[in-house]
Amino acid sequence: MKYIFITGGVVSSLGKGLTSGTLGALLETRNLKVRMQKFDPYLNVDPGMMSPFQHGEVYVLDDGAETDLDLGHYERFTHCKLSRFNSMSSGQVYENVLQKERRGEYKGNTVQVIPHVTNEIKGRLYAASKDVDVLITEIGGTVGDIEGLPYLEALRQFSLEVGKENVLFIHITLLPYLKAAGELKTKPSQQSVAKLREIGIQPDILVCRTEEPMDDEMRMKLSMFCNVEQRAVIEERDVEHSIYELPIMLHKQGMGDLIVQKLHIDSPESDMSSWNDIVRRVISPSKGECKVAVVGKYINLQDAYKSVYESLAHAGIGNDCAVKIIRVDSEEVEAQGAEKILAGVDAVLIPGGFGDRGIQGKIMSAKYARENNIPYFGLGLGMQVAIIEYARNVMNLVDANSTEFDANTKNPVITLVEDIEKGTSMRLGSYECQLEKDSLSAKAYGEEFIKERHRHRYEFNNLYRDKLAEAGMKIAGVNPKRDLVEVVELKDHPWFVGVSFHPEFQSKPTKPHPLFCAFVAKALEHASSK
Length: 530
Ligand code: GLN
Prior knowledge:
The protein is of the alpha/beta class. The N and C termini lie far apart (56 Å). Mean pLDDT is 93; it is low at 420-424.
């Protein structure tokens, strides 16, 4: 087994997760099997309860783990299967240590950060050390943070235990550009590496995030002061078009060669053909452009709908077209009307969400898409609002609602289903769904039995099932075990699909999701019919 540890220096938001995913992708182009994981130094047990303002999107895995959005990057860039064991926070580490202490497992010893907390961290590394060639572990936060110290100490011990020749430390750092001086500065990076070395970790590779190109002199300086080989000082410029340029950018600088050499791995040369093709499609798509409105309440946050935006980009790659995403604030739709705000868009997508702020705007957007034959894709809450809209405006159930927004509605078309997994109130993780033969969804998937990831509390109320179908909304997919409605579609409409699950968690640039592909194909049709 070989190990790569990724740390960050100087500032947060350097795109460590993206770089980690990219390294995974580069190793996979050499036929190596990788596993990826993230250690987060914060004390929350998981990000499930963190606000999107704090943390961006909550990324859900097959097993129902609610994780950091970096795990989304890992799944998009590589083929590794992730589980709750690939995401660990200090909250979990301390929870485990304290439970062991209460069970008397420390046999009366004083429980301390070293060795008890560090052992717990190393335990995770050993547990993940099987079935793959390389384990890539990203450490959240920035070197120098107090809360990150136990992790770095654990990594130092671990590299000694498994042999230094099997471990690679990669430090990602920032070269700030000082406009007044007209130059990039290396001092913060030097200091951040010095902090690492103080703890006993010498980085093997330095990845320098920069807006401007780095010259040889800077490379020499960084090499000397940071004690890193010159060829191992890698420039990572801001990408021009898409994050999927990263594997090629780092490949061109010999990153893959460097890693396999330093870790003494025997592997074939990289086959970059699929990444080259992806980037070609992103930079110069051959089939024109469509405009997709994403109507949500966190549209000003870069990361709140991360996987949705990425999945739309993947569908653009799949259809060889450009997808222009128009971020629409649902409260703006409420204030100014859907006709005004959504005029000219080729498709409407409503992502998942919780709470009633902006709901009316989402209902108005679904109505606009339905009445104007604009392709519509509703995810989670997006399916629920489409049903509420249909019940109110087509079935004349004027007060139809979800009990999430009105506990006393006379027509609870969306409601809590009591028997949802005992102990948890959320339906989380992968569930099976049987699709109706001939439905738009079955056509898109090319199969009738699928598995998708969920994260919701409320369900379609089966008391309304027959009435809804009679009124023209098709029940196109059902969870066979529990008879829960998972997919609804409209008959007399070009493409109107609502799903209770989140297909955006299973889309990759190398394998765009079939529903997103079908949706974007229809958006493109709409664009070319104008
Ligand atoms: N708030 C809704 C629920 O809990 C929808 C959640 C979602 O979009 N996944 O059911």
